[in-house]
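Entry 14. Structure prediction run on the chain below.
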Amino acid sequence: MTESCSCGDKAEVGATVEFQCKTCESVIEKFSIKKPLKAAGIAAILAYGGSQFIDYAITDNRYPLDVEYSVLEACSSSYKEPLSYSSYGSKKKLCLCALEDTMNEISYIRYKIDEKGFLKAFEENAKSCK
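Output returned:
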């Protein structure tokens, strides 16, 4: 980056960072930030921010709590007769496994649009969780 200096010459603009002692104010360390280093720093910050956003957008696959609860409740109480405590526990684990796999496969937005596709995927995942 070139700017006109107050003396009329073309001058390169840069930044200098100094670390000073608080007691005697002597310079402990001093370094200059050059243009390529600034560009690399900005690129690194943008890349990190972008990756965090993408990570949130893609992997944040939780459904609203009431939907998750309803799906688990419907899955675990789908028998017409009462279950023993151990059978209920294993059924609950199977339902949790199927729901987790299905949530990783189908986003909540897609669930709202295609409920039959969600149910089909949930059934397939329940079979694979056994």
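Residues 60 and 107 are 9 Å apart (CA to CA).
Filed with the rest of this week's runs.
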